[in-house]
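check these tokens.
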Amino acid sequence: MIMCMPSRYKITQLTFTGKWSTPMINEGMQLCLDACAKLAKIMRLCLKEIAFDSQE
């Protein structure tokens, strides 16, 4: 499990079980950070649209 702060592009919590090599951990963290950043942009756009629509 990985938790991150997309605005800072930082990992806030990392939990894994089993045997993981350092390259696998690094690749997994990078994939998760990139996905989190993309989702954060989409969520911000949706919230802005909702806020704009509610003002009309």
Notes: The two ends are 40 Å apart (CA to CA). Residues 2-55 form one domain. Residues 4 and 12 are 5 Å apart (CA to CA).
